[in-house]
Amino acid sequence: MSRFCLTLCAMQEDASPNLTAKSLACRRGDRLLFKGLSFAIAGGEVLHLTGANGTGKTTLIRTLAGLTTPFAGEVERVGAVGLVDERPALDPDLALGRALAFWHRVDGCSDPSEALAVLGLEPLLEVPVRYLSTGQRKRAGLAALLNRGAPIWLLDEPLSGLDVAAIEQVTALIADHVSGGGIALIASHQTLKIDGLRTLELGEYVPTQEPA
Amino acid sequence: MIGALFKRDLGRFFPFVSAAGGGGAALPVVFFVAVAMLYPFAVGPDANLLARTGGGVVWIAALLAAILPLEKLVAQDIELGTFDQLRLRGVTEEVMMAVRLAAHWLSFGPPLILAAFPSAALLNLDGPTLQLLLLGLLAGTPGLAAIGLIIAALTASLRTGAALSGLLLVPLALPILIFGAGALARQDAASLGFVAAISLLLVAISPFAAGAAIRAAREV
Fold first, then answer.
1. The whole model's pTM is what?
2. Using the beta-carbon criterion (under 8 Å), do B4 and A106 form an inter-chain contact?
């Protein structure tokens, strides 16, 4: 991660990042999704979150990010969190360059060009966000993540909609980030080719149905 | 960071200069003038009648114009994930909403006050009435913007939010209308103090109420 937007990375790398979940339980509506989930990820580690549709991968990621409160248990975070999900948070009416520029200003990123080049977004900067394809939007979200320089990456299906070359590129970026001391938690149905990958099967924590 | 946020919000909501065609940001002002223009056609060209009732019509037009931007005020950014991403960057929902309130008012209050001039001419309002009307709008539109923001945040996750928010705004805006239009009927600037007080209270509450509504919307 140190390659992108140096100004901010230098600021945020003073403490080693950490992400811990303690006997976490989450629910959606009235349904308990999973319970008793505990894990710890330290800097330089990458966790692959798997599980069938509806097991609560997205809910877990949002809980880890601190956007929703868990039903039980607690989350401890050391370090800033960068989140990429199916919504890249870019104004659909603006050209991609201008939409991304808002996040660069918010994040204090002075030179976003390298991340844009790595993700192949440079030819698209003049295109309004609403005309971008699913994969292009996903890459735009990843560019905002790179230029933010957050040590903890929470990625919800980062590879969905990407072509073969982009999948390789993004996998390499994640490996880079982790080897630079960052944390990555990736919810994905695809197989990830990253060294030292741990896997967490969320289905194992789904409570057995009790008779009503 | 707050500056960047304010600039973005203003760019999205300010009429005529908004990026990519404005997305209907000029609509409230156009609507406001259109009501003032239609009224003489509806009641006939009786100059005295227009002068007597015109001020009230302008107030009703302002209230209805306040409903128009509500649909896009909050719901779109919840859908886009903008508020989530800002939260991860340490911006609280209250700050987001305070910034949005300022941008929303700037994009709707001052343009409406400017549009009151042609409206007053169309409705044959005299100088003192226009003066009271302008002062009243200056005092009242922040309150209307604050009510609008609270309602937009509360109804953002509802499917029928747009229609509902219009219905909700009308009764809540009633005190502003009573004192604002009442000042015109009595030619009495004192009741504009009430309008300003109500506005101040609403402006103070709305970032907290709207911020709590956005947090609650995440937990569904």
1. 0.90
2. yes
